[in-house]
Known about the structure:
By secondary structure, the chain is an alpha+beta fold. It has one domain. Helices cover 29% and strands 27% of the residues. The protein has an 8-stranded mixed sheet. The longest helix has 16 residues, at 163-178. The chain starts with a strand and ends in a 17-residue tail after the last strand.
Amino acid sequence: MAIKQISLNHEGGLYYYRIDDSKVDAFCDDFSGLRKYLKWVFKNCPDEYFNSGPRSSSLRFKLSNLRLITVKGHKISQLTKLALKNSYYVDEHSNVQAFMLEHDNETIAAEVPIWLKANELKEFSGLFKTNQPLTGHIDLLGISDDKIWIWDYKPKAHKEKFAATQVYFYALMLSMRTNIDLKNFRCGFFDKDYAFLFKPEIKLISGNEILNKFL
């Protein structure tokens, strides 16, 4: 295990971006753009993007025609139960992230910083009412069944109204940053009991078109 960590002083506090170099190297053979990005942003994160502008976690609109799959007792929920028994950190998110990175073979990174610029999404200003970059931090990033999985921990996931929107834009941002087609991504949010899964697709944003490279 070769976990590296850096603290990022972004709006909202410190974010501890962690990657497991050994797993990134082992599991990203088919996603070289992802490997390159995870290592590049470790040293080159454009911090200025994160100190103003819209945040994916603050989006308050629902996706069109979303089909959520609800799974009780998913592997990630079972691991979360174990993680929450630890008290290495003062908050649940940190305990879940650190535990998953250390004990789950599929998890390769945590608190991954990502962004989307206005010229990368048509009608960006219409959606976000600004031309400042959309930003976010992915709770957990994994590789499973030849897909890139983007996960967000929500202590009461079943009560979340806009978590899918948040995670969808994480996928869109990472797709853009890595130049990996969105069809290679899967999304989910979870707690200790349930996981809610979906496939991120362009049609989930009604009335908006992504750049031609993603159509």
